[in-house]
Amino acid sequence: SYELTQPPSVSVSPGQTARITCSGDALPKKYAYWYQQKSGQAPVLVIYEDSKRPSGIPERFSGSSSGTMATLTISGAQVEDEADYYCYSTDSSGNHRNVFGTGTKVTVL
Amino acid sequence: QVQLVQSGAEVKKPGASVKVSCKASGYTFTSYGISWVRQAPGQGLEWMGWISAYNGNTNYAQKLQGRVTMTTDTSTSTAYMELRSLRSDDTAVYYCAKDSGYGFDYWGQGTLVTVSS
């Protein structure tokens, strides 16, 4: 089955830049999406189609994709950005097997 | 405003079935799909499947094929997810999400399903 691999954790000081990677074989052909999930809450879409930001999402969130890796960047991380982050994409088999990444806990302190 | 309101928590015995509802409002229900996502305690997100609210087409995660059925009732703008032959590892919070075609832009509040003897 298709897998998207993320680092388990990333730590950053307030105001610094956090980068979260997502590795998957189909990413050269398929878009990546990123979701933020704070403790006890439903996820929130922060990036779609690799690099587009939904309305209402702060500009400090950006996304990129190159080869088999997608990256979510939080520029000038804030304390309120502390959360779990998940990438999401689909495989390239044509069977639309969608999958979330393994998740990354971002700590801002 | 767009809202997805899910049914309440359930406790089920192993082998039983559960049906979770997700009532949509604030948008044209048949214009978008609904995806279902679950999260076991302390674990990550798992995509379960998708249903088109327009024509009822479905796409299920391979792991759940044969145990899950997703349906919609367009007269009430409600989506349903039924999971059968429940096991202890099906204990999770189940979410519905509006699939805009550009990601899951609105989510329900989640429904806790506990499977325990």
With helices defined by DSSP (H or I, 4 residues minimum), what is the helix count of chain A?
0
Strand content of chain B: over 45%
Termini gap of chain B: 40 Å
Look at the structure and give the mean pLDDT of chain B. Answer: 97
Q: Output the helix-strand order of chain A.
A: EEEEEEEEE
Task: Describe this entry's structure for a reader.
The complex is a heterodimer of chains A (109) and B (117). By secondary structure, chain A is mainly beta. Chain A is 0% helix and 43% strand. Chain A has strands at 9-12, 18-23, 33-37, 44-47, 61-66, 69-74, 83-90, 98-100, 104-108. The mean pLDDT of chain A is 96. Chain B is an all-beta fold and 117 residues long. Helices cover 0% and strands 53% of the residues of chain B. In chain B, strands 2, 4, 5, 6, 9, 10 and 11 form a 7-stranded mixed beta sheet that branches. The radius of gyration of chain B is 13 Å and the shape is globular. The A-B interface holds A 1, 33, 35, 37, 42-45, 48-49, 52, 54, 84, 86, 88, 96-103 and B 35, 37, 44-47, 50, 59, 61-63, 95, 97, 102-105, 107-110.
Features of this protein?
heterodimer, A: 109 residues, mainly beta, six-stranded mixed beta sheet, three-stranded antiparallel beta sheet, B: 117 residues, seven-stranded mixed beta sheet, 11 strands
List the helices and strands and how they pair.
The complex is a heterodimer of chains A (109) and B (117).
Chain A lengths: L8 E4 L5 E6 L9 E5 L6 E4 L13 E6 L2 E6 L8 E8 L7 E3 L3 E5 L1
Parallel strand pairs in A: 1-9
Antiparallel strand pairs in A: 2-6, 3-4, 3-7, 5-6, 7-8, 7-9
Chain B lengths: L2 E4 L3 E3 L5 E8 L7 E7 L5 E8 L5 E3 L7 E6 L4 E6 L8 E8 L4 E4 L3 E5 L2
